[in-house]
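idk why but the lab printer keeps eating my pages so im just putting this in chat instead. protein + thiamine diphosphate:
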Amino acid sequence: MAHAQTEAKPIVEREQALDWLRQMLVIRRFEERSAMLYQRQKIGGFCHLYSGQEACAVGSIGVLRDDDYVITAYRDHGHAIARGMDPKAGMAEMLGKAAGCSKGKGGSMHFFQVDRNFMGGHAIVGSHIPLAAGFAFASKYRGDDKVTLCFFGDGAMDQGALHEAFNMAGLWKLPVIYVVENNMMSMGTQLHRHSAVLDLTQRGGPPYGFSASIAVDANDVEAMAEVTLEAANRARAGEGPTFIEAKTYRYRGHSMSDPMKYRTKEELEKARERDPISLYEVVLRERGWVDDESLELMQAEVKEQIDEAIRFAEEAPEPELDEVYTDITVSPYIPQE
Amino acid sequence: MAVMQYREALNLAMTEEMERDDRVFLMGEEVAEYNGAYKVSQGMLDRFGDRRIIDTPISENGFAGIGIGAAMVGLRPIVEFMTFSFSYVAFDQLVNNAANMRYMSGGQFSVPIVFRGNSGIAGNLGATHSHRPEALYAHFPGLKVMMPSTPSDAKGMLKAAIRDDDPVIFIEHENLLGDKGEVSEDPDFVVPIGKADVKREGSDVTIITYSRSVITSLKAAEKLEEEGISAEVLDMRTIRPLDLDAILNSVTKTHRAIIVEENWPYCGIGAGVADRIYRAAFDELDAPIQRVTAKDAPLPYNRRLELDMLPSVERVVEAVNQVLYR
Ligand SMILES: Cc1ncc(C[n+]2csc(CCOP(=O)(O)OP(=O)(O)O)c2C)c(N)n1
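predcted complex ->
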């Protein structure tokens, strides 16, 4: 973690930095309002919130090109928003509406947006990791220089699918960046209880011949951006995959139904002292890029944006009942009843 | 007898069997320190310690295989899948190893293991988390498949599964976990594998079903009674091996049958059961068998769409009316 917050030369211009701060605020507010809607039973199913991990998605997705690919697991709202999904489409999906990003058929765990090359939230732990290698395979096959960015949690490191995909990604030098968001928890299981080796950079990159295996403080949005940019450059230059261990923390339970008995108030409070949004505000103040007034204005705008998204989602119509038979195969679909 | 929840009955079955036999142990994701994602193993870590109640990483194929290996050399594992949709990650182990081992070793190896966990359409979980895998697993000779509908059955059937010398796929239903009922506290109370149960007697039509659809069917039978129709509700309990005798006894009495399940229709459980009835008792039937299934589509997140896909009391009543030509 050699990346100091107050590096002399920031890797972003002012406008970009403010946009990143705003994105983190949008994600935080989206999640906290989602929690309320879940409690009011407007949102159903499993709902995994991203609060505390915002800098990871925003920093790394922030340095990609529009034609690159992004894929993630079920804790997907933050990645979708960082990739440019309109919170209205996300919120409508959570409420199961036809205007949702997956037409109300996917829900919280299955956000998709093909026109942003946002390749989805995926709910079976580890099962999307080979898909990322597949997108990268296609890029190499076609001879374009797109990269694929794939997020997953520390728990997913234990899936066989990851190791099979990693081996082929290394073997074929695929242009893919694998980011483990190590929040130290796999549901209720701490890292030391599910992983035989605690340094994930040892488990991720080296055994598979990746071009690099790097740990980074993922509460620092610019540090996250920097390592991702370097990885993307290597990938585009044909040097193959990078493994990034993004060290972070989630504030909420694994999902909305998790009472979080496995950790203490003190631990949570200590983590909040390094809140990624507050940290970035400090950095931007020091650079003279924000002040009290501009921050307040930004917060008010974000609040309005999320209020608007919720209004939109609540007023949007439910899908028609016969929608269950659409999008199953290339039409017409013939039910075998 | 004591009144307890379905999940408590499962817990009691495992606890009693672990007390009886040191070779029995439980392993799976979050079964120990978290007390089970659905609290089925509540308190078992405290009681048995971490030698016998074992948290695993999210490595389904790995720990299913470890269980099978341990069973081949004499232990009796209970492997929990947090939900049965995740068993597909371990599909190779379940079908290539567990199902085949006795046969391809010419009977040299037994695999006394139980794979258990919940499945079913529980509410807004979307396509990946709403699978009903029983038709898949019942397809494989070498596996036994059980699905209890009541707390009492949950206890007695799980005990039979643990005591059995073959791999048993034991599928619970998420929506039944909180159901309450009378459960025997006799440690030797066992519901044998392959024994169906008449949950309600009737004379006009047989409703053949299992798991949560038993509850739906019983409600439908009450409604039908108001209309003067006497429906028998037959709970299959074991999907494989099928209790064909019990089914034929009932159909020979009522001469009409419907099959209710949460599965998809094509190649579903009802398809196999109807085939057996037609071949064994065609002449007994006064009407073609009707089936009530989930709609033939993946499960949508949207609640309204999801509910519309499931077998409902209304659809069961409608199917009964069809076989009665009303
Ligand atoms: C194959 C599979 N097994 C189990 C689950 C249930 N499950 C969902 S998330 C999760 C924990 C994953 O933790 P991690 O990968 O660290 O991601 P995080 O939640 O920290 O983002 C578990 C056990 C699942 N969805 N898929």
